[in-house]
Amino acid sequence: MADPATDPFDVARDAAAIIAERTGTPRHDIALVLGSGWGEAADRIGETLATVDNADVPGFAAAAVAGHSSAMRSIAIGDTGARALVFGTRTHFYEGKGVRSVVHGVRTAAAAGCHTIVLTNGCGGLDRSWGPGTPVLIRDQINLTAHSPIEGANFVDVTDLYTPRLRDIAHTVDPSLDEGVYAQFRGPQYETPAEVKMAGILGADLVGMSTALEAIAARQAGLDVLGVSLVTNLAAGISDQPLSHQEVIEAGRAAAERCGQLLADVVGRIASEGRPA
Question: Global pTM?
Fold first, then answer.
């Protein structure tokens, strides 16, 4: 549990300083958080110039979920001259370490100089046309955790939480990409059919256990945000099949090549275009 007396932004700055030292570069440009099914993207973005174990960086911990990596990588994004800071895992809210720990990677990315963050996840889909292995852009979200990473009277506008310009770039890479609303539940239990039905009534197309809190923290930090979900299974009640994490892993493996290349192409395009002045 995070010490309430410690400024989380100070911890993020300390982490960014260690990352700069270990990677040999004073700043990175784009950060990626790789959720279930997205691990192969790191190998396709470009040359890995440095790898840093999470345990060596303040505020980070080993992966708690099968299929995730306990290291972060500094990667040259093609020939753009830009650098990507790629997190191979995230801290989930259900781990009980507090919201500060959940969004520490996001705040570290901002402290490391990143102007953009790409948040990915594996999730359940409410649309039957999205079979396992379908990537979906997140256009908006519903935070069902009853928590926020923003502390105190800091009122942050999240109207366009997921940056429209970045979604437009993704559509130029793959015009067939659909968009949807992502709802974050606390977990770690999967959602019940009734909860999925509720989420659908509220407007959700995707359900999972991550991303929403990170996106809010990213907006507070001034980062542009691109969210991409990999539908690994139909949500509870949409299909009559039981849910399992092994199913999530297997769907991620099956879609790894396509999704990895998609994400690499999108990140390359973002890096080439840069951030508007």
Answer: 0.92
